[in-house]
Specification:
34% of the residues lie in helices and 29% in strands. With 257 residues, the protein is of the alpha/beta class. Part of the ABC transporter complex HmuTUV involved in hemin import. Responsible for energy coupling to the transport system.
Length: 257
């Protein structure tokens, strides 16, 4: 079970957003996509998740574009940076939206919704109207919706999150990453777009560092988070330390282009 991008390119009109991308996403791994603004992280996530169709993306050696939409929706789930909802749905009703692709019984779907509420600690939000929630509360509900979508396929799911912790406080960031480790332990492939290099280094098994739509470096956090790579990608001088064998960076000086 793998999701592979082979010589993938993506452009919009004259703007080349991705060039010569070769990545394999595997079960039981947490992948972090990092890089400066405009590097192509979100585009890469959307291409890999099937949100943007392009040649060269295969799921278990089958072209993504050849797979039925319903099948893809049960195996792949993606939470974008902005997932606003203007309807006055309650929390549990938003969670139910994740079950739309599944031809499963109402009772089965309700059990999954309750499991996710328990797992994410959403009891206090269960009957709250989504539009009255804070940004962090909305994000927790949206994460729950994504989990409901793949909850009964965890051992073969591919999940994608774009800046998932931006709205979360420290405690809920830790809850989120603990949840990602749980998903990976059950066999899911987890991919995260993250701006915080230290968070990515701490929790990801593999990192993909992008710059100008190309892969600058790929591998373990120790292989990717280096003084030289940070200079090339972000134009910053930095010090790289080690914390529990994981790299930890401190950026010092911004170097003008």
């Amino acid at each position: 079970m793998s999701l592979r991008l082979t010589d993938v390119n993506y452009r919009i009109e004259k703007k080349q957003l991705l060039s010569d991308i070769n990545i394999t996403l595997r079960p039981s791994e947490i992948n972090g996509f990092i890089g400066p603004n405009g590097a192509g992280k979100t585009t890469l996530m959307r291409v890999a998740s099937g949100s943007l169709n392009t040649p060269g993306v295969t799921l278990n050696s089958v072209p993504m574009t050849a797979l039925p939409i319903e099948y893809r929706a049960c195996k792949l789930a993606c939470l974008n940076q902005s997932s606003e909802l203007d309807f006055p749905f309650k929390c549990f009703e938003v969670l139910r939206l994740g079950r739309i692709p599944h031809l499963t019984s109402r009772s089965h779907n309700e059990r999954i919704v309750e499991d996710v509420i328990d797992r994410l600690g959403l009891h206090s939000l269960r009957n709250r109207v989504y539009t009255t929630m804070s940004g962090g509360e909305k994000q927790r509900v949206q994460i729950g919706r994504i989990l409901c979508q793949i909850w009964d396929n965890l051992d073969s799911a591919f999940v994608f999150f774009d800046e998932p912790t931006a709205e979360l406080d420290l405690a809920h960031q830790l809850v989120f990453f603990d949840l990602m480790k749980m998903l990976a332990a059950k066999g899911a492939s987890v991919s995260l777009v993250l701006h915080d290099i230290n968070l990515a280094s701490r929790f990801a098994d593999e990192l993909v560092l992008l710059r100008s739509g190309r892969i600058l470096a790929m591998g373990s956090p120790s292989e990717v988070v280096t003084k030289q790579n940070m200079m090339q990608a972000f134009s910053v001088d930095s010090e790289v330390y080690r914390l529990d064998a994981r790299p930890l960076i401190q950026a010092n000086i911004v170097i003008p282009d």
